[in-house]
Amino acid sequence: MENYKVKDINLAEQGRKKIDWAESRMPVLMYLRDKYSKTQPLKGYKIAGCLHVTKETAVLVETLRAAGAEVAWSGCNPLSTQDDVAAALAANGISIYAWHGMNVEEFYWAIDKTLEIDPNLTLDDGADLIFTIHNKHPEKAKNVIGGTEETTTGVHRLRAMAKAGKLLYPVFAVNDAETKWDFDNVYGTGQSTIDGILRATNVLIAGKTVVVAGYGHCGKGVAMRAKGLGANVIVTEVKPTAALKATLEGFRVMPMDEAAKLGDIFVTATGVKDIIVKRHFESMKDGAIVCNTGHYDCEINIPDLESLAVDKKEIRPNNEMYTLKDGRRIFLLAKGRLVNLASAEGHPSEVMDMSFANQFLAMIRLTETGKDLENNVYLLPEEQDQEIARIKLETMGFKIDELTPEQIEYINDYSQGT
């Protein structure tokens, strides 16, 4: 029997070309693959993964297998799976259950299929896999040494679960590694979100007023890239320090109720529901473009938009035009899903190189320490961050200074005055 379900296995050759390209852009992960394929520290371990099926993810999956792991995979977003990449993984013997456009039932069916291997490690983006184990298959948690979580939203929810005493195994917050969120979230999200908007609309960004909801790492990246293309950027926030940072970095800051009247393009990047709701749609300009680059599609209240519309049609791929009763048109991109993955290809390979190096090394770390950890959410050690950054710099042809023994002694000598 086939141990996969994808859209079309005949797309495998096309997907393999994409993976080959990603490998040429991901030298850190390829270095780790070469190193650990010799020692195979993951031999005998079974990993269930739930993460966007992109060419970069494929490089991670095949690196995990090269290190000895048995892997079963599903996509963590119904619209982010690249069908040719999924086919390439299936053709290479990976148990994968993912295709673009899955409905909710199919999405969770795929996660259930990955759990049939009885994993002892889990790798997640958004924590849907972890939640499925906890809520539907708690008996399987007994065999899980530990897991990892890729994104901010998932980490927040897992910390809440741990605080409530409900987490059944330890999890490394890969998202919170410096070489993840200070690079992937900022530069990856910034560039790929603009890419997704352009593919779905082909609008001129220069001169537009772009409203970015949320000024965390992801929102900061989007605001930075929009500004670089000539947009006038407005930031909406609930956190005073984040709003202050946005202000001092040159952006206008105001509540969404005010920004809704001014924006040409709206991007939500908060991980929180109901950021854009009925009253905001009611005050938007004719032609406003609305999209989401947070994890879930609930940031934009789509039922509210539909309640105001008298007509809805797809005007371009991943671009739906809602005509309101007064004739105004609002364009929703990627059905409110992650615009950078649903209408583009996600983050560039170069930045995912570091994120997925963290995932890979976290898996190995769990095999070494997971059984000794309590059921909590843990940060990865700083030395791992610095090692990944060092390797990345070397592959880019850069060298940096090193502290002398005397400088190290000075740093640690609390007896010296000014």
Fold and architecture overview:
There is one protein chain. By secondary structure, this protein is an alpha/beta fold. It folds into two domains: 9-180 and 347-395, 3-Layer(aba) Sandwich (Rossmann fold), CATH 3.40.50.1480; 189-342, NAD(P)-binding Rossmann-like Domain (Rossmann fold), CATH 3.40.50.720. 45% of the residues lie in helices and 16% in strands. Strands 9-8-7-10-11-14-13-12 form an eight-stranded mixed beta sheet. Helix 15 packs antiparallel against helix 16 (382-395). 50% of the residues are buried. The model has no long low-confidence stretch (mean pLDDT 96). This is Adenosylhomocysteinase. May play a key role in the regulation of the intracellular concentration of adenosylhomocysteine. Pathway: Amino-acid biosynthesis; L-homocysteine biosynthesis; L-homocysteine from S-adenosyl-L-homocysteine: step 1/1. Belongs to the adenosylhomocysteinase family.
User: Structural class per helix/strand content?
Assistant: alpha/beta
How many domains is the backbone divided into?
A: 2
| The CATH class of the largest domain | Alpha Beta
Q: What's the CATH architecture name of the largest domain?
A: 3-Layer(aba) Sandwich
Tell the overall outline. globular
Helix content: 40-55%
The number of distinct β-strands equals 15
Main β sheet profile: 8 strands, mixed
Q: How do the strands and helices of this protein lay out in sequence?
A:
Blueprint (H helix, E strand, L loop, with lengths): L11 H14 L1 H13 L6 E5 L4 H12 L3 E5 L8 H9 L3 E3 L6 H11 L6 E4 L3 H9 L9 E4 L2 H12 L7 E3 L4 H24 L7 E5 L3 H12 L3 E5 L3 H9 L3 E2 L2 H4 L5 E4 L9 H6 L4 E5 L9 H7 E8 L2 E6 L4 E5 L5 H4 L6 H21 L7 E2 L3 H14 L9 H8 L6
Parallel strand pairs: 1-2, 1-4, 2-3, 4-5, 5-6, 6-15, 7-8, 7-10, 8-9, 10-11, 11-14
Antiparallel strand pairs: 12-13, 13-14
